[in-house]
Write a structure and sequence with these properties.
mainly alpha; two-stranded antiparallel sheet; 2 strands; binds iron/sulfur cluster
Length: about 180
């Protein structure tokens, strides 16, 4: 059980790794968002952001309060987002997707739909991404209920997935680096 500040620091460290992971995987933009925009004539659409997920599943806990406070300090309160798409109940959803580069709530950070998980399995042989498991792990990091050992294991599993994506995405670069 760390302080709320220490729990958030760990959470943000994992968020940085997951952002790297999703940046490399890039399934949502290429296989979901761009095809849908081409199909619907560039109309904004909500995709999986169909609720105010930045808060609906948040727990009553000081670390969650701190996460929200820092998010608002960095990116403003949801009701003041200028480019809100109005196609999603979530104000942070704009015509170009989510405006939050960091400080997302656990469910927003962890969520992958079935087709994106299937893509991860079929294209990269990564079977370790269980979105509910990731969601709970992120919640427990914030509440301080994930032990340091489990935290390190979870962190390593994120690094392993990144490694797999990097190797499969640029085999020539990796081969020449050996
Ligand atoms: S998680 Fe699934 S529904 Fe959501 S943007 Fe990605 S591909 Fe689309
Ligand atoms: S905060 Fe971002 S990821 Fe979460 S529901 Fe809103 S737009 Fe989607």
């Amino acid at each position: 059980m760390g302080s709320a500040k220490e729990n958030l620091r760990r959470y943000l460290e994992i968020e940085t790794l997951l952002n790297r992971f999703f940046g490399l995987y890039d399934f949502c933009l290429k296989k979901c968002v761009l095809p849908e925009l081409a199909r619907n004539g560039n109309q904004p659409f909500a995709a999986c952001c169909k609720d105010k997920y930045y808060k609906v599943y948040d727990l009553e806990h000081p670390s969650f309060d701190l996460l929200r406070d820092e998010r608002v300090a960095l990116y403003g309160p949801p009701e003041e987002v200028k480019d809100s798409s109005l196609v999603s109940p979530c104000e942070y959803h704009t015509s170009t997707g989510c405006v939050l580069p960091t400080h997302k709530s656990p469910i927003c950070l962890a969520f992958m739909c079935r087709k994106s998980i299937d893509g991860l399995r079929n294209d990269y042989g990564i079977y370790t991404y269980d979105y509910l498991g990731f969601n709970y792990a992120l919640e427990w990091i914030l509440t301080g209920d994930l032990s340091l050992t489990d935290y390190e294991e979870f962190r390593q599993s994120c690094l392993d997935m990144i490694d797999t994506l990097e190797k499969k995405s640029s085999p020539k670069r990796v081969a020449s680096a050996r």
